[in-house]
Amino acid sequence: MLIIEITNARDVIRQRIGRLGARLIGKVVDPEKQVEEALMQEMETAFKEFGIEAKITSVSGPQTIGRDRMELPLHVRATKDVELD
Question: Is 3 among the domain residues?
Answer without folding.
Answer: no
